[in-house]
């Protein structure tokens, strides 16, 4: 399984409603910019923020896809497999 791109991570956490924007100093003195922070992709955060966004039918589809990804990609990170299962099912690609 591939690591998600920054764009996919941003899209995913925004779909979950988990974006924190903070003001940080930019390279120029006295200048600030907004920076978005997202939760880490781990099982705790996925079950805390993403899974509750799914309806029961979608949860079943995600669970089936997660098991499939874990079976096909042995020894891979279970959180990464769950991310892709939720991402693919929520996008309608599975």
What does this structure look like?
It is a single chain. The protein is α+β, with helices and mostly antiparallel strands and 94 residues long. It has one domain (6-91). The protein is built from 4 helices and 2 strands; from the N terminus they run αββααα. The protein has helices at residues 6-16, 43-50, 56-72, 78-91, and strands at residues 20-25, 32-37. It has a two-stranded antiparallel sheet with strand order 1-2. A hairpin with a 6-residue loop joins β1 (20-25) and β2. α3 (56-72) packs across α4. The longest helix has 17 residues, at 56-72. The protein is elongated and about 50 Å long. The two termini are 15 Å apart.
- Class per helix and strand makeup: alpha+beta
Which regions contain 5 or more consecutive residues with pLDDT less than 50? none
Domain tally: 1
Helix content: 40-55%
Mean pLDDT: 85
Radius of gyration: 16 Å
Question: Care to give the gist of this entry?
Answer:
The chain has 94 residues and is of the alpha+beta class. It is 53% helix and 13% strand. Helix 3 crosses helix 4 (78-91).
Strands, helices and their partners?
Blueprint: H1 6-16, E1 20-25, E2 32-37, H2 43-50, H3 56-72, H4 78-91
Antiparallel strand pairs: 1-2
Helix pairs in contact: 3-4
Feature tags:
2 strands, alpha+beta, 94 residues, 4 helices, two-stranded antiparallel sheet, 53% helix
